[in-house]
Amino acid sequence: MISAYEFFKSAPKVELHVHLDAAFDTRLLYEVAQRDLASLPQEEPAPWRGGSVRVREQIAECEGFDEFSRIVKMRAEDVVAGQLDRDNSGNL
Description:
Blueprint (H helix, E strand, L loop, with lengths): L3 H7 L15 H10 L8 E3 L4 E3 L1 H6 L4 H24 L4
Antiparallel strand pairs: 1-2
């Protein structure tokens, strides 16, 4: 019989991770973003768009929760659209 250490050492490994898209309550995210806007990054890379996103500027310009929610969801839609474009072009 092998030890627990040897068993776990020899067992296949998997990567455990969480995709943060849709993992947060959008209303809570909006409240925190409004309260702590200065602590958010100025800009973040956006490889799905081939550029970057001006995080603080876009959040500061939101005129309420509905607009913020649209911006948050837009990123996920961009990723899906980009994947569909690659699939349709025959390139994966």
